[in-house]
Amino acid sequence: MEPAMQSPHLTEANQNETLQIDFTWAKMKSYISNVSDPSKPLYIVDYSSIKKECILVSSASTGLRIGSGVLHIFSINPNFKLHGRKGVLKALSRWKTSYTHQSYAFAASPDGPPATMTWTGHSDFKTWDFVCLDERQMPVAKVKANWWSVHKVGRIEFLGDRVISEAARDEIVVTGLTIMYCMVIRTISLPSLVGAVVARPGPIKDGSNQQLQQQDGPAALKDQALTGKQD
Predict the structure, then answer these.
(1) Helical (H) or strand (E) element with 79
(2) DSSP tally for the chain: helices H, then strands E
(3) pLDDT higher than 50, residue 226
(4) Helices in the chain by DSSP H: which ranges?
(5) Strand partners, 117
(6) What sign has the CA pseudo-torsion 35, 37, 42, 45?
(7) Ramachandran category for residue 196: left, alpha or beta (phi over 0 → left; psi -120 to 50 → alpha)
């Protein structure tokens, strides 16, 4: 039975903390912990190549599911689920690393509309950096992927003077991992190249994630036909 979704945290995480992502080949899992205390994981990440939810993020302390990421065969718009709420990472460009998503953790008011967050990226021979920007285009977090490391595959750094809540940290972990593995797939997959060609990039105009989960043009239709499932 799948663990129940955990309700969003209300406590605060450490400001400007850095998390490290350690992958173990023996268990095919990643353990995410604070660099200052790597012996105590905060998150456990499971991967699946046969389930719809490819990336499964759970709390290391409780074992409860925090969120998940869904990567597609053709579509370049991955989906995610965070504390039971579904969302989409919408591509802003066919060829650049540029995505947007709606955030309730970074919203100005708990009862107000979600904030529009933006992910950008750049890479070199060793690393690929994914930076999350808030509505003012100020960086709040960076996911650094290390392509040549066997075990220490990346880091998540929280930036700026904003106090990061645990709900916001959960969101960055889930969306950051989803973006990272989505771009890995896009660099090695011919179907993803076709998906980029037929994609309709652009901002989330109406702020509705639900509609975007059902609409991604021909790419989404091809995914559904191959998997027999709908987003």
Answers:
(1) strand 79-82
(2) 4, 13
(3) no
(4) 166-188, 190-198, 209-214, 217-227
(5) 101
(6) positive
(7) alpha
Give the sign of the dihedral formed by CA 13, CA 155, CA 96, CA 213: negative
Question: Which residues does residue 156 pair with via DSSP β-bridges, in sequence order?
Answer: 19, 143
CA 144 from chain center: how many Å? 13
Residue in the block written with tokens 């456990």: 44
- Angle in degrees, CA 141, 123, 74, rounded to 5: 90
Is the distance from CB of 91 to CB of 201 less than 8 angstroms? yes
76 alpha-carbon distance from chain centroid: 13
Q: Which amino acid is at 161?
A: D
Task: Give the pLDDT confidence score for residue 201 in this predicted structure.
Answer: 78
- Supply the DSSP symbol for 160: S
In angstroms, rounded to a whole number, what is the distance separating the alpha carbons of residues 199 and 169? 30
Of 117, 106, 109, 213, the closest CA to residue 167 belongs to 106
In the predicted structure, residue 136 carries a pLDDT above the cut 50: yes
